């Protein structure tokens, strides 16, 4: 086992001692291959948890387990005190509290940017068209794309698409945002605008779990960095501990190859 | 050197101008193109004009036109022009230096081959048993009294095809909803239905539903409704596979994105997956409809009443009364009148979807 250190919680969340989301002993098997091995993770309100690790280490699977896109083979996922890995849990209600942004954007290509962002407001939250519109515009303004409301995803750059995807998740007013390698399919010059959007989000106090290869982003924004390998959380600690003074050999090798 | 047209407006591609075409053409390529074009025009328009001048009826007059020296002369001219185009194009094509001139030579040669084939074919026909053929198949004088019957036939063919298609889409959607289930138990009934229908001929299905169910176990089905039911079940099986493939072709991430916003399975289907799948299944569904229009001719086996006859049954009946095969020619033309515009529409829809214009402005 690796040296899973004590969780360093931000000081100002002492009132909210309960974690927003916990994974307890989560295992995930795909057929005969084990992609998550006994993962324990607590996410507190206001945390920005950045998960790094080599490809195939189970980072994305871990993230997708948090909102039950992947059902754990064993173990529990608890959100806000409710076990959502329970087969009887109301997943739609649970997912409403979490927003997710994907590597490949997954915008709805047959809808305008406005409809992409406001669809959930109308269909899931049953807002009236006008108030859904207002909230969608506010969400687009937050990512700096209010002027693209009428455009279609095919008319936008990759970076703009990803910012729309962020807005689509944000307008649902989630308590937790999940980011799955959101800059990996972007051209280098477009990465910055998406990272800036995410930094803004982090400074507004949003609880975030971010799977990324952007070590610089982790260093600046993360309150905690997790290094995963072969389905295990090998190292967990503050960015300074994990990134600047890595104690673990494999973590040091990985950082050496990325930086 | 080809002239380079400066693209001032970034949204417009540079257009080939007349002067650049002229510059890039070669004498030989223009000759080939001209000879091929004129050859094909003469091969098609010449006989048509000759027959129109001589008159389409009676058959004896048509025979005279088709064997006349003018008619044959036109065909000889057309064939020769076509031959010239081909002969000129073959040795020169590889040596031409510009894309424009090569394109002209290629088009000219293809048109020439067509002119040669039509001209020579028609010539061969003109020296054959024209009188017998015209008397039996081109005796248009007998058609006018039966025209209203063919109009009814077209009407019934379209009614059968449209009701069958609509019923089939309903059956197909229901079956597809089962086919995309991860549970084998849920998929099984739909799979059995689809395979049963796809594994048997339509003519057998029509017969079973009418002779077996309607007459045999006395279901209250007329021949007409039995036929519509058979078409609906038939189209349902094939469109079920089309819908299934269409739904499954939508990227899984679309579904996941909808679910992470908090939508239910049905909401994700309704607002995200189905609207995108519809665009993809439209061309195959339209193709299926064109096929169904022709397949309605199989109602011949169950014997409809006179006012219910479809196009082919009409032609068949009128032929039985008159023993004039011209009505089969008329039947064929009537089918084409219905199907060709549809085929054209399918191709338009397909090319629109391929270019992807459907998404970019709306």
Keywords for this structure?
heterodimer, A: 259 residues, alpha/beta, Rossmann fold, 2 domains, 9 helices, 11 strands, 35% helix, globular, disordered N terminus, B: 362 residues, mainly alpha, 77% helix, disordered C terminus
Explain this structure to me?
Chain A is an alpha/beta fold and 259 residues long. Chain A folds into two domains: 19-97 and 176-259, Rossmann fold (3-Layer(aba) Sandwich), CATH 3.40.50.300; 106-173, no CATH class. Chain A is built from nine helices and eleven strands. Chain A has helices spanning 59-66, 91-96, 113-123, 129-142, 158-170, 188-203, 215-221, 239-244, 249-258; strands at residues 3-4, 21-30, 33-43, 48-52, 74-79, 82-83, 98-101, 176-180, 207-211, 224-229, 232-237. In chain A, the strands form two sheets. In chain A, strands 1-11-10-4-9-8-7 form a seven-stranded mixed sheet, with helices on both faces. Chain A has a four-stranded antiparallel sheet with strand order 3-2-5-6, covered by helices on one side. In chain A, strand 2 (21-30) and strand 3 (33-43) form a beta hairpin. Chain B is mainly α and 362 residues long. Chain B is built from 15 helices and no strands. Chain B has helices spanning 18-24, 27-54, 59-66, 69-92, 99-126, 130-137, 147-179, 184-198, 202-216, 223-249, 252-261, 265-295, 311-322, 326-355, 357-360. In chain B, helix 3 packs antiparallel against helix 6. Chain B is flat. The two termini of chain B are 41 Å apart. Chains A and B meet through helix 2, strand 7, helix 3 and helix 5 of A and helix 11 and helix 12 of B.
